[in-house]
Amino acid sequence: MPSDVSRITSVDTYDIRFPTSRELDGSDAMNPDPDYSAAYVVLRTDADDEHEGHGFTFTIGRGNDVQVAAIDALKHHVIGRPVGDLCADPGSLSRTLIGDSQLRWLGPEKGVMHMAIGAVVNAVWDLAAKREDKPLWQLLADAAPEWLAGQVDYRYIADVLTPDEALTLLKRGRDGAAQRAVNLRATGYPGYTTSPGWLGYSDEKLTRLARQAVADGFTQIKLKVGADLEDDVRRCRAARAAVGDGIRVAIDANQRWNVDEAVEWTRALAEFDPYWIEEPTSPDDILGHAAIRQAVAPTKVATGEHVQNRIVFKQLLQAGAIDILQIDAARVGGVNENLAVLLLAAKYGVPVCPHAGGVGLCELVQHLSMFDYVALSGTTADRVIEYVDHLHDHFADPVRIVNGHYVAPSAPGFSAQMLQESIDTYSYPDGAFWTADRAAQEQEARA
C-alpha cells in the first residue's frame, strides 16, 4: 500500500494546443476555427509508488493560457496535502477549492475558475484510482454507496435531491451491478459519432464518413447545423441518404439560435427525422429550452456540454426542459459534481448521453457513463456516449471502439494521462510543433 505520510509536492501545468482549425476538424456554427486545446495539470507526490494524478480541461485555442493561469491560482490549496487523505476523500479538496472566497467571486461555481477546479479534482480522482489499481469507472462502481453519497455537494440542490435520496438511488443501483460489470467488459458501452458532421466538411466527406460510421457499427451519427438553413437541408438529406432510415441522425446547433429560430429551424429539418436537437439556444436559458421542447416534439431536446454547474442542471430537469442530459467531464467541477448531476438525472429518469470529443473528453467521460450503467441507472437504453476520432493517439490509455461501442478501460486511473512526447511537441508557444510553425511563418513573411 502507498505510504500515507506522502504528500503532494507539485502541481505542474501545461498549455497544450493542437492545430485542428487547419483541417476544420471540430468546426460548427458558433466555433468555425477551433484549435483543440487542453489546460493540463499533473499532481506529483513523494510517495514510493511514483503515481501521478493527471487532469485537464478542454478549450479551443486562444484563452487556454487564461485557463492554465486559473489552475495555477489553485496550487496553494493542493501542495503539501497528504496523499492518503486526499485520495480517501476527494470531496474535501473540492469543497476547499470551491470555497476559496476570493476566487469564488469570479464565478461562483462557473466559468474559468470552475473548470480549473474540475481539472484539479479530476487529477485527484486519477491519482486515487491508480493507487487502488482500478480504472475510475470500477473504483466508483465498487465504492460503498454511503461514501459516494458523501462525495456530493448538496448545497443548492437539496430541494430536489437530499443526501438520503442519493443514498437510496446508489443502494438501488448496486442491485445486479456485478453482472452489469461483466456485461460491460464483454460488450462495451454504446457510442455515437460526430466525425461525419463538422460544418466545414464537404458533402462528399460527410457522405463518406457517414457510411463508414455505419460500417463501423454505430447506430447514431450527429451533424452540426445552424449557419445556413439551405445548407443544412442539403447536408441532412445527404446524411439520411447515406445511412438509411434505421440509423439515428442527431443535429447540433451549438447555441446559435433564439428560441423562435430554434423552433422554426428544427421544424424545417423535421423531414429528415432528427433524433435530437442539441444546444438549440443559450445553455443558460432553462425556460427557452422548455418552450423549444414543447414546440419541436417528437424531436428530442438535448443540452449540457456548456451547462456550468449542478444548479442549472437541476433547473433544466425541474422545468421539464430537456429529453437528453449531456454531461461534460471537464466543464463542471470534476467527478464530484458530475456525480451530483448523474444522481439528479437518475431521480428524474432522464437519459444521460455525454458530450465528448475535443482533447481527451472521450477518454474521461466514458468512465462516468460506465459507472452510471453499472451502479446507478443500471441501463444503457437510449444512452450513448459521443465519439470523435481525433487526438486519441496522444494519450497513454486511449479509448477503443469496437462495433460502435466503447471498450471498458482496464488500466488504473481516469485515462487522462497524455504522452510526454505529445506534451513536448504541442505545448504552446514553445513546443516543437509551434516553434517550427512560427519559424515557417516568419520565413514565409520574409520571402
From TrEMBL:
<dbReference type="Pfam" id="PF02746">
    <property type="entry name" value="MR_MLE_N"/>
</dbReference>
<keyword id="KW-0479">Metal-binding</keyword>
<dbReference type="InterPro" id="IPR046945">
    <property type="entry name" value="RHMD-like"/>
</dbReference>
<dbReference type="Pfam" id="PF13378">
    <property type="entry name" value="MR_MLE_C"/>
</dbReference>
<dbReference type="InterPro" id="IPR029017">
    <property type="entry name" value="Enolase-like_N"/>
</dbReference>
<keyword id="KW-0460">Magnesium</keyword>
<dbReference type="InterPro" id="IPR029065">
    <property type="entry name" value="Enolase_C-like"/>
</dbReference>
<feature type="domain" description="Mandelate racemase/muconate lactonizing enzyme C-terminal">
    <location>
        <begin position="203"/>
        <end position="299"/>
    </location>
</feature>
<dbReference type="InterPro" id="IPR013342">
    <property type="entry name" value="Mandelate_racemase_C"/>
</dbReference>
<protein>
    <recommendedName>
        <fullName>L-fuconate dehydratase</fullName>
        <ecNumber>4.2.1.68</ecNumber>
    </recommendedName>
</protein>
<dbReference type="InterPro" id="IPR013341">
    <property type="entry name" value="Mandelate_racemase_N_dom"/>
</dbReference>
<keyword id="KW-0456">Lyase</keyword>
<dbReference type="InterPro" id="IPR018110">
    <property type="entry name" value="Mandel_Rmase/mucon_lact_enz_CS"/>
</dbReference>
<dbReference type="InterPro" id="IPR036849">
    <property type="entry name" value="Enolase-like_C_sf"/>
</dbReference>
<dbReference type="InterPro" id="IPR034610">
    <property type="entry name" value="L-fuconate_dehydratase"/>
</dbReference>
